[in-house]
Structure formats: structure tokens, C-alpha cells
Amino acid sequence: MGVKTILEEIENDVIDVIKTNFVYNDTRLVPNPSDPELTYERGTEKNGKKIETCVLYVDIRNSVALTEKHHTQTMGRVYTAFTKAVLKVARHHNGHIRNIIGDRVMVVFPTKDCFTNAVDCAISINHIAEYIIKKNFTGVNFKCGIGIDHGELRVIKVGIQRHGNEHGENKGLIWVGYPANIASRLTDYGGKKIDENYFEVVRNPINPRAMLPLFGGFSSLFGGQSSYDPKAPYYLTSVETVEMTVEEFANNISSIRDGDLYMMGGNFIRFTKKTRTITFPEILMTAAVYNGFKNANPERNCIKKNLWVEQKHQIKNVNGKIYGGNVIWILK
Q1: What's the pTM?
Q2: Is the distance from CB of 234 to CB of 206 less than 8 angstroms?
Q3: Most exposed: 147, 150, 261, 311, by fewest CB within 10 Å?
Q4: Distance in angstroms (rounded) separating the CA atoms of residues 290 and 284
Q5: Which residues contact residue 32 at a Cβ distance below 8 angstroms, ignoring those fewer than 6 apart?
Q6: Which of 144, 183, 165 is nearest to 54 (CA)?
């Protein structure tokens, strides 16, 4: 078979997928590749499933640097021990392993008690990393990052039918939905130190009295009086200092004449570029997961002692509040 033939066959496959109807049936259980209700798309209606639950990702921190520093045999043992531990502890907390890519593992939970099971699983994984792996692999600065999100996941089966030793490698499940993407993104930051550049901008604030209200202002619409004064100076004489991300600074600054800089939001005086180090805790979760866990476990020690802390710095592409903590089990 020449390359032209296989490319034509692949294009026909793509066209077939576009024309195929996709149907997703509700489930509360975690689908697996052998689920008879999940079908391939070729020539027929494609049946998938959708589940509203928690998804957890865990990843080893600085795996490349660790491999460069330590003997390959040592890191092979570390990966083997940790991955096996994650598989066992996930099953203990009713989780199902649905993907292993290198040193990253994906765990999906049945809908029932998913908040408790997911967070407990994260605590167990963090405990294993801190107190079992480190103790038994002395000299290896082992850390992991864990991310959890909750929401609707759509599951479809992909691949081609193959027989023999390769049949298992040519099929799998695709998990489509924000929770998988967000949990994976949180995992990227869990347990990491990030050097962040930002700008400290000094400016005179805009005078609220100089701003012409839209449509006459809300106050006048409801019978009140607008504070607008057409004779008021546009800027106040007071000085404020604000922090801006690199992107915010770039979007707000401009130059109308050579050598003159202007900035939205105030009368620009000066700016200073600075760098700070942000440390994220090992376990990160969205507000949906935190609130679900808190509602289900109001008397848990980690809730009563506020061990899950709202993170001050947002993570790129993650909207809403993020909570995190380096929580482990207290064993008696």
C-alpha cells in the first residue's frame, strides 16, 4: 500500500467521523474501554457516555531534572514504585485509572461520593510522596503535583480494530470536557515554584467626578443625583501604586508621541519591573471540588483547621477560585 492510498483512506475516515451522529448516554459509573455501550464511529451512530464527577491528575515534579541527577536505574525504580502506589491507592478510594502517560496518571471517580473520594485520594497520594517514597529513596528530592476538578465529562472510544499483541495499544477512551483540562492544568502547577515577572506602576487615579456617566448614570435613573462635574480635573492629585501582570502592562501602556508614555486607568508617573517567586501547594482543586468536599465533610480536620487555602494567584486558563494545601494523613 502506497502512502497515497493510506492518506486517501484516512481522509475518508475523517469525512465519516464528521457525518456520524454522536449520542451520549448518562452514567454514574466510570466507563472502561471494554464497555459494550461504547462504540467506534465507523459507518454507524457513535455511542458515548457522559458522567458528572471528579477527575484527578497526578504528575511527578521535575522528572527531567531528577533523571539527569540520578542513575537511570534509580529513577526507573522511583517511577515504578510511585505509579504502582497511585494505582493501589486510587482503587482504595474507589477511583479508576483511565490514563497513564509517562509519569502522569489520570483518575476518574464514580459520581457517588466523588468529592470525598477524590480529595481523600489526593491526600493519600501526597502522603505517599512525602512519607513513603522520600523515606525509601534517600537523596531523591521527590515531589508531585495533584489537580482535581468536577463537572461533566463526555467519553468516547477511539482507535482501530486490531488483533494480536498490538490490539490493546490501538484503542482507548477520550475524555472530553473542561474538568479533564482544568485538572491537568492544576497538576502542572501543584507543588511548583514559579518565578513571575510583574510591573509596579505609580500613577494618579482618574477622578470619578470627571467621568461622564453612561445614559445619565444609574443614580439619576433611580431618582438620585450624579456626581459628574464637567469642571472637575480628569486626574486626582493623590498617588496610587498598582501591580500589573506583564500582559496587563502591555495592554494598558501606549505611546502617542516619541518618548511619551501613556497608560489607561490613570496618569502615568513611573513603573518598575519586578520578579517574585510563587509557591503552589502540592494539591490544587477548583472551588467546585472544595465546596463539594466541605459540604460532605464539615467536621473533617482539614476543613475545621482551614488547611485548604484559597490561592491568591490565578492559574492561566483557569477561571474562578482555586484552593490548595499540602495535606497529609495523621496516622495514630
Answers
A1: 0.81
A2: yes
A3: 261
A4: 10
A5: 96, 98, 173
A6: 183
The b-or-e profile of 30-65 (16+ CB within 10 A means b, else e) is bbeeebeebbbbeeeebbbbbbebbbbbbbbbebee
State the cell numbers at 320: 474562578
Q: Could you tell me which of 144, 116, 160, 155 has the C-alpha nearest to residue 9? A: 160
| Cα–Cα distance, 49 to 25 (Å, whole number) | 5
CA nearest 110: which of 164, 60, 150?
150
- Structural contact between residues 299 and 170, judged by C-beta atoms closer than 8 angstroms: no
pLDDT digits (tens, 9 = 90+) for 149-195: 999 999 988 876 655 555 555 568 889 999 999 999 999 999 999 89
Collect all residues with Cβ–Cβ distance below 8 Å to 275 and sequence separation of at least 6: 195, 196, 197, 198
pLDDT (tens digit, 9 = 90+) per residue, 225-272? 567 888 899 999 999 999 999 999 999 988 877 778 888 889 989 999
Question: How far apart (Å, rounded) are the C-alpha atoms in residues 142 and 78?
Answer: 9
Nearest CA to 303 out of 312, 311, 292, 313 is that of: 292
Question: Does the pLDDT at position 321 exceed 90?
Answer: yes
Residue with cell 492544576: 186
